[in-house]
Amino acid sequence: MQEQQYGLRRQGQGEARTVNRKAEDMQPMECLDEIAQASSTLWLEQLLPPPLPAADAAPSGERRREPLRTGLDTCTDRFAGAACVWLRGEAAGLTLSIGGGHNLRATPAGGWLLCPQAQAASHYWLPRLPALRTLDADGHVLAERAASIEGIEVDAAGLAASIVGRGGAIDLVAWRLDDPALVDELTDFSALERASWYQWGSHTLYARPADLYQHLIHGHIYENRSQWPFNWKICSENDAHSLYVTLSGLFRSTDKRIYDLLRKQVVLSVVDRLGEDGAFRHGEWSRNMECHYRLHASGIHLMLDYLAEHDDPTVADALQRAARFLAARPDKTDLGQWFLHDELEQSEAGMRQSPFTWKASRVLGKSPTNMLVLNTHLDTLIGLDRYRRERGDATLDELLDSAHGAAMRVLALRPAEALYRLVAKVLYLTFLPPEKAARLPLLQRALKRVGWKWLAPRLHLLKTAFPRLVFPGGFIDRAVSLKGVSDAYQPINLMDLLRFARHFPSPAVDAVVHEALAFTQGSGLVERWAGMKNKSYAIGFWAEALWHACMLYPNPDYRSWLGTCMLRLERMKMGLPPSLLGANAEAVPPDRQVPCPIVSDGRLRVANLSHGDTREFIVANASKDPVELTWISPPDRPIEWTTAGGLLADAETVPAESWLLGRSR
Questions:
Q1: Is the CB of residue 79 less than 8 Å from the CB of residue 51?
Q2: Taking a C-beta distance cutoff of 8 angstroms, is the pair 660, 641 a contact?
Q3: Helix %, strand %, coil % of the chain (to 5)
Q4: Could you read off the pLDDT of 295-330 as tens digits, one per residue?
Q5: 609 and 582 in contact (C-beta within 8 Å)?
Q6: Which residues pair with 159 in a beta bridge?
Q7: Backbone phi, psi, residue 123, to 5°
């Protein structure tokens, strides 16, 4: 009977010993437990279990969380041909070892590949260096830094790296790749795969597969930033959905299985985080782990995207529980049912813990603590409407019909028109970029000062007396009872209104959208955001909103504005929002998605406006030199190209600091 050997190396010693047990008597985690009890050394070959047989692999893979010993645990994802493990150790130090016969090399995917000299052996991918993190009991990341690697031993037995961490938990992530095709996919990268993609939640960039693990920490998706007001990192389904759309677009365009595995890992991580009550909880604003309903709705959107391509009962059950949790928490107003911004809005005690300044008001028959936030109401409504339609749940009909009516009535509110026109004129002066504001006549500069110093901080008093969110001229405010004005939420409100217009077509909504788009482009807001570090994120959402506008309306101006915005984002090194890859399943169902063509030159960026039988692309060149337009993966149909000025182009070159629009003939 064959015996299985597990090699152990004691930290700081050259000796090695083996633990022998019959393979069929020992489960993988039992082996690890015996190893962990015996030594602080962990062998990578045994830390990672074998991948699933293809016949046994569930659509989204398999996840297990198991302790190795006190203060040392693992989270493992297994797929057909690959497996991934996160190790978290509270110990002061660990030694990670791998047996002899491996070469270490960097990969354009990020991180390092451990490549075996034996042809049939497994490859290992380490996406990131080990990190040292301090977490609270709710899973917030309070602090993080790279763990120290103090000593690397290489001998005939293999390689051993001593990882040292004090005052936190050592986090390590590693992949085992038994499918050779996955190794090839991590080492051969096109210009599209080297491009940067702006993430909706954290406003940071995904530029290569290893960047996923800036978010995916010990099996949960976090924002890749420290969150105001507590300066901690929170889990975020908003970033999870953004990453899923990014990876779906890359999978569609490259047909690389690694992107499919990574997006399935995102799905596993979201389902794994769902609470028993059906809630995704975040603790973004308080220490009570309140649910932020927009982030929760993003989890619903992500699971709907996944289920549009896969039949997975586990994900379907999680989706149903998440949808029912959200559907049970609206506020009844005179306008209809209104979905709240977060769980704190449900009570005065909760709002006392909120970092926002707000005015208690029963205007429009709402609860005093309901701030009447527009974008979260729209996003929640869209998510639950998708769930109702795509999963056939008619029990939500009455609720969603009421919530839709509430949205339409809020958008139609036009009280005190003459007063609001005067207010808008003063307010819009505060939206000007500094260089334009400096050239204003003296009287207008004085009015601008009145606007930002006195009017804007008190605008909620006007809105609760004469409630409206759509201002004369095209500005859309965020909320009724929230103090201040957030001009950077204009493109977020627009993005959600465009999605709302897709789900609930209406000439009245179209009119609001068209006016708001024109206002945003012509008011100076984009230039203002570009010059403000704390508001530049709004330009990423402006590009996202313009993509939705191009997908809904044939207006050539929207395509021109999107091309110009792409150039600005590239110059600012902000990346493009993921929907521009063309794989946002809310807007384009998977069976109508078209792969984004891949250019040869990385200086060019492509926005994919295609769907079904339509082929439409914008190719932008932010560099100061003309760039030849050649393809690694060209459009699948003949394309007619026009310049930014509307002239026919030969499509051989994209002019410097300009763009081309291409449509199927």
A1: yes
A2: yes
A3: 40, 25, 35
A4: 999 999 999 999 999 999 999 999 999 999 999 999
A5: yes
A6: 98, 154
A7: -95, 155
What is the rounded distance in angstroms from the CA atom of residue 248 to the CA atom of residue 493? 25
What H or E segment, with its residue span, contains residue 643? strand 639-643
How far apart, in whole angstroms, are the C-alpha atoms of residue 533 and residue 519? 22
Model pLDDT for residues 578-630, shown as the tens digit of each residue? 999 999 999 999 999 999 999 999 999 999 999 999 999 999 999 999 999 99
Q: Are 215 and 270 in contact (CB under 8 A)?
A: no
Query: How far does CA 630 lie from the centroid of its chain?
Result: 30
In DSSP notation, 272-298 reads HH--TTS-----SSSTT---BHHHHHH
Token pair 């289920």: residue: 307
Tokens of residue 180, six digits = 């050779």
Mean of the per-residue pLDDT values of the chain: 91
Which pairing describes strands 169-177 and 131-135: parallel, antiparallel, or unpaired? Answer: antiparallel
Decide: 378 and 499 in contact? Cβ < 8 Å.
yes
> Long-range contacts made by residues 525-532, C-beta under 8 angstroms, separation at least 24?
525/431, 525/487, 525/490, 526/565, 526/568, 527/433, 527/435, 527/436, 528/431, 528/432, 528/433, 528/434, 528/487, 529/488, 530/433, 530/568, 530/572, 531/433, 531/434
Please say whether the beta carbons of 192 and 111 come within 8 A.
no
In the numeric block, which tokens belong to residue 112? 């390092």
Question: At 189, which amino acid appears?
Answer: F
Residue in 309, 245, 176 with CA at minimum distance from that of residue 584:
245
Residues in the chain: 665
CA–CA separation, 542 and 630 (whole Å): 28
Distance CA 326, CA 619 (A): 40
Instruction: Identify the residue whose tokens are 């047989």.
Output: 53
- Give dist(CA 225, CA 233) in Å, integer: 6
What pairing do the DSSP bridges indicate for beta strands 93-99 and 41-43?
parallel
Q: Which residues contact 381 (CB under 8 A, 6 or more apart)?
A: 339, 400, 403, 404, 407, 500
For 540, residues 6+ apart whose C-beta sits below 8 A from its C-beta are 198, 200, 203, 569, 574, 575, 577
Tokens of 618: 């914008």
Q: What are the backbone dihedrals phi and psi of residue 242, each rounded to the nearest 5 degrees, phi first?
A: -60, -45
